[in-house]
UniProtKB/TrEMBL annotation:
Transmembrane parts of this sequence: 384-403
Stretches with biased composition (Basic and acidic residues): 1-11
Descriptive protein name: Tetratricopeptide repeat protein
Organism, scientific name: Sphingobium yanoikuyae (Sphingomonas yanoikuyae)
Location of region: Disordered: 1-21
InterPro entries xref list: TPR-like_helical_dom_sf (IPR011990)
Gene3D superfamilies: Tetratricopeptide repeat domain (1.25.40.10)
Keywords: Membrane, Transmembrane, Transmembrane helix
Length: 406
């Protein structure tokens, strides 16, 4: 006989809402307040498995699809999607609210609750007192209140990246509340770990395994599929760059950018090129990123940085001024522009000083030749030097006027 969705519920819940149970198919809103919405969605086929998903902070949108909804439905789950309009850590929801909502849906043989970051903390807070429930908490954010009203009865699995200090600290706090939890340490998945786990297919594979009551070797699955995850490769590449393992960093970051053309990955790859002694290659690659996202002021500023590192200061000035045109109120852009202007001014002044020094040397040679009857001095050479000095002064004045230095 099929088990009930929850064989024991938290005590003292509020009265049921006037909303009716979900129909046999489609979508039904079971709860809504000013910030949160809970929606029940039938899967693509009749199911005895329910997935409860908490949208992570980066996906605050009550009008959009539930977190991982489409993928889980195609895998044979019905979905109870819990969403919020703005990131409040689901503080407006209580265990009593959840119990009322669950009274309106069918009974299931298995219930898997998925949450990441603040959503993971909400999953632990709201569902840990229920039996016959499995909770998957990815990178729980324990800065969010996780006070528990009743003893823990749910089966809990937690995942975190031990290479990220903030995640380690959060896990230590969580483990003190959920000492019986199954723990998977997934090194180099990043913060939060969900991106690498999603992109590699590990997250959905784990939810499916939990729904079927089987065990998945999380790290083995992740390592076998890490090449599919731009985030995982990016994390590894950045780690290699930090350790000055430049060949490995270049290979990993290039592969990451090939998997997904994300600007932050491309910028990191440009850093590896510059650090490897190829600043002009870094500039060339950064230009391809800017061409793709030419309305992004911060990418123009990044191009300016790499041009400056390649001693292309005039080009760097043009790029930072384009960034300012796109976003004129960003103070670091203005600071960068002023620094480049000052550097250009200093360079021109240095060239003027070198020209004057060369001219003075020529005059001394001429005087020496005249005084000792030596080789006849070339007036043509002295004239050319003087004209060159004059041209430098004219250029300096033009640049100063153009760049508002005078």
């Amino acid at each position: 006989m099929a088990n009930k969705v929850m064989t024991e519920r938290p005590a003292a819940r509020s009265r049921k809402t006037s909303l009716q149970p979900a129909p046999a198919a489609g979508r039904t809103i079971l709860f809504q307040n000013e910030n949160s919405l809970i929606e029940f969605i039938r899967g693509d086929m009749p199911s005895n498995r329910l997935a409860v998903t908490f949208a992570p902070p980066a996906l605050c949108d009550v009008n959009g699809f539930g977190y991982y909804e489409d993928r889980l439905r195609t895998e044979g789950f019905d979905v109870l999607a819990i969403k919020q309009a703005s990131d409040m850590g689901y503080a407006d929801l209580t265990a009593e609210t959840i119990a009322t909502v669950c009274d309106q849906i069918p009974q299931y043989q298995s219930v898997t609750v998925l949450g990441t970051e603040a959503g993971a903390t909400a999953a632990l807070r709201l569902f840990s007192a229920f039996s016959n429930v499995t909770i998957l908490a990815v990178s729980p954010d324990m800065t969010v209140d996780c006070a528990l009203a009743k003893p823990v009865q749910a089966q809990i699995t937690m995942i975190y990246d031990p290479c990220v200090p903030a995640q380690v600290e959060n896990f230590q706090q969580a483990s003190s509340l959920f000492s019986r939890a199954t723990v998977f340490k997934t090194p180099h998945t990043g913060s939060p770990a969900r991106y690498s786990l999603e992109e590699s297919g590990t997250l959905v594979a784990l939810v499916i395994a939990m729904g079927e009551g089987t065990i998945l070797d999380v790290n083995r699955h992740f390592r076998a599929n890490r090449h599919l995850s731009a985030t995982a490769l990016y994390v590894l590449g950045n780690d290699a760059l930090t350790k000055r393992q430049l060949p490995a960093a270049r290979r990993l970051l290039k592969r990451s950018y090939e998997v997904e053309n994300r600007p932050e990955i491309g910028i990191a790859y440009c850093h590896t090129l510059r650090e490897s002694g190829a600043p002009l290659d870094a500039v060339a690659f950064m230009k391809t990123i800017v061409d793709r996202y030419h309305h992004n002021a911060h990418l123009w500023a990044a191009l300016s940085y790499f041009q400056e590192m390649a001693d292309e200061r005039e080009e760097a000035l043009m790029s930072i001024r384009h960034a300012i045109e796109l976003q004129p109120q960003v103070e670091p852009f203005l600071v960068a522009e002023r620094r480049l202007l000052n550097d250009l001014f200093d360079d021109l002044r240095m060239k003027q000083m070198m020209t004057e020094a060369a001219l003075n040397k020529s005059r001394a040679e001429f005087a020496l030749a005249q005084g000792h009857g030596g080789t006849e001095f070339s007036w043509e050479r002295a004239t050319m030097l003087a004209v060159g000095s004059l041209l430098i002064l004219v250029t300096l004045a033009a640049v100063a006027i153009s760049f508002r230095l005078v």
